[in-house]
Amino acid sequence: MINLLSAIEAEADASVFPAASAACEYLKQEYGDATAAVVFYGSCLRQKTDIGLMLDFYVLVDSYTNALLHRLSAFFAFLLPPNVYYHEIPFEGRIVRAKVAVISVGQFLHGTGPETFASSLWRASPNLRP
């Protein structure tokens, strides 16, 4: 059985393909100082390419108001997390497409915890195997 923290550390240390790195940097700038973390996941991560696909990200924020800049958007983001947005990111003469779920750190941790079932959030299986 894999220790979950060790698995997360190994994934965090792994490099990703250049388009995904560029998209991550773009999202950090887009959501500004409210950005606590950007989590890349999904089929592009597994396949190590975005060609013909769409990148999947969670942007974990400290403040919806600071991240989204509109009070009404921030209110609904808090009420029904996560809010999902589509981004087109210029990269090396082409467009990289990304689905971006914006959610507060607290709501993400609660929604992915063992006591919660939230079909809109993924969580690591407690039975990860090597």
Describe the model.
Helices cover 38% and strands 26% of the residues. It has six helices and four strands, in the order ααβαβααββα. The protein has a single domain, classed as Beta Polymerase, domain 2 (2-Layer Sandwich). A four-stranded mixed beta sheet has the order 1-2-4-3. The protein is α+β, with helices and mostly antiparallel strands. It has helices at 4-13, 18-31, 43-47, 64-68, 71-79, 105-111; strands at residues 35-41, 55-61, 83-91, 94-104.
Question: Would you spell out the secondary-structure blueprint of this structure?
Answer:
Layout: H1 4-13, H2 18-31, E1 35-41, H3 43-47, E2 55-61, H4 64-68, H5 71-79, E3 83-91, E4 94-104, H6 105-111
Parallel strand pairs: 2-4
Antiparallel strand pairs: 1-2, 3-4
Summarize the entry for a quick read.
It contains six helices and four strands, in the order ααβαβααββα.
